[in-house]
Design a protein that fits this description.
The chain has 365 residues and is of the alpha/beta class. It has two domains: 246 residues, Aldolase class I (TIM Barrel, Alpha-Beta Barrel); 70 residues, Orthogonal Bundle (Arc Repressor Mutant, subunit A). 39% of the residues lie in helices and 24% in strands. Helix 2 links the parallel strand 2 and strand 3. The longest helix has 18 residues.
Length: 365
Amino acid sequence: MNKIGIYIHVPFCNGKCNYCDFVSGVYSDEIKAEYFDKLSAEINDFDFSDYMIDSVYFGGGTPSSVSAEKIADILDLLHKKSAFVDDPEITVECNPESLSSEKCAVYKSSGVNRLSIGLQTATDSLLRKIGRLHLVQDFITVLDQAEKYFDNISADLMLGIPEQTPVDVKRAVNLLAGRNLKHISAYSLKVEEGTPLAASGFTPDEDYSADLYEIVSQMLFDYGYKRYEVSNFAFGGYECRHNLRYWKRGEYKGFGLAAHSFVKNERLANTADFTEYFSGTRQVFSQYIDPKGKDAADETLMLALRTSNGLDLKEYKSSFGIDLIEEKAEQIELLKDFVEISNGRLRLKDSGFYVMNDIIVRLTV
């Protein structure tokens, strides 16, 4: 039986951050209740007969901004609909202002075994600048509570925030790594149109963000973390199984507003419109990806090069009939300062992660 990952989108927050353009917002309890009814109906309509659930990821939005019982109810429904593997990874994204010891207890009893907590920065003035609703001490307080229930905890850092300095970044890394969190994500800020940060005229300096990323990477290496994907670092055995599924082109099914799926070689997307979703309209996009075609080949290369394992060249040739070393020999030679070939795999060097997108463009066939 095939394994599948489940993504559940929870489009609710206690406040909208200044950089956020995700499908999320502040809504009434009545809207939340109706949404979870529709979400349950969508899950009931999916045929799980060919699958065992390997991972469940509650993202958003801020899943911890709704009652923990809502999360527990969805997990209960999934157990009724499908078999699970013996050791599923079940993650809930949280923000410090909406997480509590009581919610952790409910999560734990419902089968959740991993939390991802958004810190972004360990400098209070910067948290206020980007519209976060918590301060650093709030994060520390909920981390103390969460660690009583969970061993596997991740936290997020954001790089390129207005007025962020290397000192700010080092403070944040020392806070998280000093607590021996099993997993740390570090993302560069992207300012999207329609957000307050965009309206302010702020544009991140990509070179400066790369410098901050280098600081984070080196510090985390020194603390014993391994980079297993361009934005993600973990202790051995604590890589996020659900996210690895995306990068390995494994099957996953997304439920909820704006959720995406990759099932039976088809990419699907749900509507991002509440009115449409509540009226029964769900899927608004579908594209079949020929498993032997160019799109699948390009996706495989692009996603594999995001990871530290890189691309298995023999498997790539077997799947797509493409000898990358032969067909891209000139480009690989030109990129020798950024990529390497070892043990039959094409990988990015540390320097390559800073210019990954350009490398991918050059190497796709």
